[in-house]
Amino acid sequence: MPRIPSILTFATCLAAAGTSAFAQTPAFSRPEVAIAAMFPQQTFVEWTSTTGDWNGDGVPDLALVLNEVNGPSDRPMEIRLVVLAGTPGGQYTPLSASASYCRAQKFFNLEVKGASLFVTAVDKAEGDALGTTTLQFRFNPRRGDFELIGKEIVWTSGKDGGRSSVNYLSGKFITSKRVKGRLKASQEKRFVVPALAVLKGFDCGVYEDGTP
């Protein structure tokens, strides 16, 4: 078998290293620079944000709800949920991003609990009336993305109210109703658990969660 010249071997290694470096996720100096690179055809501004270490590397990550501005007048403005991973050098790399995310009539809240990100859309907040929808995303290192594992809808009006909770891990759908301050009814149903949706490309308008 002919011997491969050492210079050719070295060149092959350099080419492989160059390909690997090219495939790495780019890092950006500021969140707004990363967002501009992720959505070059659109302009987004921050609605709200929070920090957490979802990927468990000891460096704070950044989650943002973004609102499109200066978009075409013939369609609604888009909402995006984006998570940027922090780097030890203080930069940011894209970790995941939704497609068209759920809209909120009033505002959004973001909350961090461990490896989970709770995203609450507040649709009503007037006096003693409240209406919210919360989605729970949990980071899965094996998939390198956030999985949707829970949803909760809550509404209150004075002493009346209701709650529905969906657990996508166990396939449980629980509803309860409160009338004049007392729990009137509570039901639990089972449903066939679909494959867990991930945040990347998640679209509220087309997602079917399989609940009854």
Please describe the topology of this protein.
Blueprint: H1 6-23, H2 31-38, E1 43-52, E2 61-69, E3 79-86, E4 92-97, E5 107-113, E6 116-126, E7 129-140, E8 145-157, E9 160-167, E10 172-179, E11 182-190
Antiparallel strand pairs: 1-2, 2-3, 3-4, 5-6, 6-7, 7-8, 8-9, 9-10, 10-11
Signal peptide: 1-23
Keywords: Signal
Structure notes:
By secondary structure, the protein is mainly beta. 12% of the residues lie in helices and 48% in strands. The chain is built from two helices and eleven strands. A hairpin with a 5-residue loop joins strand 3 (79-86) and strand 4 (92-97). Keywords: Signal. Residues 1-23 form the signal peptide.
In sequence order, what are the helices and strands, one letter per element? HHEEEEEEEEEEE
Cα(first) to Cα(last) distance is 67 Å
Low-confidence stretches: 1-23
Largest sheet: 7 strands, antiparallel
Overall morphology: globular
Structural class: mainly beta
Gyration radius (Cα, Å) is 22 Å
* β-strand number: 11
